[in-house]
Amino acid sequence: MSRTFTRIVLAFVLSAVAGLALAVPAGAQNMPIPSVSLNFGDGSGEPGKVAVVMQLLLLLTVLSLAPAILMMVTSFTRIVVVLSILRHALGTQQMPANQIIVGLALFLTFFIMAPVWQKVNSDAIQPYMNEQISTEQAFDKASEPIRDFMLKQTREKDMELFIKISGGKKPEKQADVALVALIPAFVISELKTAFQIGFLIYIPFLVIDMVVASILLSMGMMMLPPVMISLPFKLLLFVLVDGWYLIIGSLVQSFH
Questions:
Q1: Distance (Å, rounded) from C-alpha 240 to C-alpha 230?
Q2: Is residue 126 pLDDT above 60, yes or no?
Q3: In sequence order, what DSSP letters do the residues of 38-105 get, joined into one string?
Q4: Region for 247 from its dihedrals, namely left if φ exceeds 0, alpha if ψ lies in -120 to 50, beta otherwise
Q5: Residues 6+ apart with CB under 8 A from 87
Q6: pTM of the model
Q7: pLDDT tens by residue, 71-103
Q8: Which region, left, alpha or beta, applies to residue 13 given φ > 0 means left and ψ of -120 to 50 means alpha?
Q9: Is the pLDDT of residue 38 over 80?
């Protein structure tokens, strides 16, 4: 059985290759294929160029990790989770769309993190661009405002958990906590806070669903979905209390 299957696969591959060869025009079959080679060299003659290449590789690596850094060390996690829970509580399926929720969360993140990034720019980026400090000093100065922001939003219990898991000693002060333990502690703290806010948001809409379901059951309309009837009332309640104003304002104020 295995030999038969192997023969079938080989026949399929050969037929596909033959078909591609026939599909290529006759004049293009003799067309030479250019070769591409990548060679870094030893750099013994021009060490400056090697340093520039390494800096470019480091920059590309940082840019590839930028989305994860943006989500993990900023207010993005809490905002996007709360907005997603709000959409489920309203029962509007895919409205607002995922693009709108993520876009709103990004712009709110830029607004909340603006003082932190301004301090990073003035203390680390500008002195580094003016060649006043080294790369190590720039990294240390850039991480200090972000560390302070995360420390204000992280629970001590979560920090102690990751410090214990890493096997390190408990630091004398919170400023000495390593970023390796601080970042995951900050993330789970943000998730817990987001679910607490989401629970409070869910309660009034859950009450509306229960009331509508009870009324339909008492009227004998058991085949009518309660969600279909309760959706207009939930939207009406959300609009009357100016829900977007209250939720967005509360989210922004929760970081201060």
A1: 15
A2: yes
A3: ------SS-HHHHHHHHHHHHHHHHHHHHHHHHHHSSTHHHHHHHHHHHHHHHT-TT-S-HHHHHHHH
A4: alpha
A5: 95, 96, 101
A6: 0.69
A7: 788 888 889 889 988 888 888 877 788 888 888
A8: alpha
A9: no
